[in-house]
Amino acid sequence: MKLAPEDGKTINFYTTKMVFKTTLAETNNSYSVILMTHQASTGPALHIHPNGQETFYIIEGIYTFTLGNKFIEAQKGDFIIVPQGVPHKYVSGKDGGQMLVTTPPAVEKYFLHIAEELVKRHVPLEYEFEIAKQNGQIFLDKEGHWGHRQ
Q1: Residue ranges of the Cupin type-2 domain (predicted)?
Q2: Would you tell me which of 33, 85, 100, 101 could form a disulfide with 57, CB atoms 3.0–4.6 Å apart?
């Protein structure tokens, strides 16, 4: 199978455009591959994935990653590997950016569920974090979650 750059299920997750290049249905529920385009200063709050590792390939822009107690600046061409269970987060730079993300099992379901809810209503973080937890993403903090300021 070949996908053109615009091919794949597309959702808006807050201000981030996500294009699902490979879904759980296509990988025997093993992982998803998502092309994410971020606006400036955007990313998730600190979280872990207890069921698998996550990887990020930077296509454009600059991102600051927190992996455990380390800070990493990543730019075009860099590949970041987050081992299973390691607390992590990232934030896009002042010009936004684009990355290809390989997620652990079920995280795709969290993104799809919340994106669908966001079309209808404001989604409280407590509700979102519960859906995330049910789908393999456990948030440890609320700080700066997808641009929200506490």
Answers
A1: 38-95
A2: 100
State which residues form the domain around 19.
Answer: 9-140
| Domain count along the chain | 1
Q: What is the 3-state secondary structure (H, E, C) of 15-83?
A: CEEEEEEECHHHCCCCCEEEEEEECCCCCCCCEECCCCCEEEEEEEEEEEEEECCEEEEEECCCEEEEC
Residue with tokens 């989604």: 123
90 membership: H or E segment, kind and range:
strand 88-103
Q: Which residue has the tokens 């879904």?
A: 23
CATH code at 51?
2.60.120.10
Q: Residue 46 pLDDT > 90, yes or no?
A: yes
4 domain residue, yes or no: no
Position of tokens 């795709």? 108
DSSP-based three-state secondary structure for 91: strand
